């Protein structure tokens, strides 16, 4: 094997595998949170959350960095993943870009992007995963849409060519189950967790929907049985 090729193979082998987020992913919004943001995330982690998407893009970098450090400390003992929305990984290795944003120089280890329709999916290049939104009408972003609904999610997921996180208006276990049935690799949840009086319980119930601890019918009509 030529030396140059061998060195590239060796470098690729040494590079850690990319672990895309799956299951129920926590999306932060301190403005909606009923407790300090880090406390809300800590409660979700205690209930099984292993991936968090940090937004708070209006904050200065120093404040965002302090939040990122705190969240990584929560996630590290459980092997969790922190993804940062925007153009700055905040000294991490995972970044989530908005639709149409140009990726920064120096590709992060894990790269995601927000998408909303087939045209945006067709424009993807090296992204590891995408979010598709809004799946349902969202209280966090009223009037944002139109909602894809599970039928739209089912139509678009195969076009992504990579794992899809369903996003938008997901508040109940049966909605989570419907997203999974429609081909999503996970769901990203913000308002239902941030606004919860008991974020750990809220996360556990949504996770039950993902794990199939419901009647399996989905489509917004399933009944939680555990």
Query: CA-to-CA gap between the ends?
Result: 56 Å
> Would you report the number of β strands?
8
How are the strands of the biggest sheet laid out side by side? 1-2-3-4-5-6-7-8
Helix content: 25-40%
Shape: globular
Q: State Rg.
A: 18 Å
Number of helices: 8
Oligomer type: single chain
Unreliable parts: 1-16, 215-226
Mean pLDDT: 88
What is the string of SSEs from the N terminus onward? HEHEHEEEHEHEHEHH
Task: Tell me what you see in this structure.
The chain has helices at residues 3-14, 37-46, 61-75, 118-122, 149-160, 173-181, 191-194, 199-210, and strands spanning 23-27, 51-54, 81-85, 94-97, 110-115, 129-132, 164-167, 186-189. It has 226 residues and is α/β, with parallel strands linked by helices. An eight-stranded parallel beta barrel has the order 1-2-3-4-5-6-7-8, surrounded by four helices. Helix 2 links the parallel strand 1 and strand 2 (51-54).
Summary keywords:
226 residues, alpha/beta, 8-stranded parallel β-barrel, 8 strands, disordered N terminus
Short account of what is shown:
It is built from eight helices and eight strands, in the order αβαβαβββαβαβαβαα. The chain has helices spanning 3-14, 37-46, 61-75, 118-122, 149-160, 173-181, 191-194, 199-210, and strands spanning 23-27, 51-54, 81-85, 94-97, 110-115, 129-132, 164-167, 186-189.
Topology:
Blueprint: H1 3-14, E1 23-27, H2 37-46, E2 51-54, H3 61-75, E3 81-85, E4 94-97, E5 110-115, H4 118-122, E6 129-132, H5 149-160, E7 164-167, H6 173-181, E8 186-189, H7 191-194, H8 199-210
Parallel strand pairs: 1-2, 1-8, 2-3, 3-4, 4-5, 5-6, 6-7, 7-8
Helix pairs in contact: 2-3, 2-8, 6-8
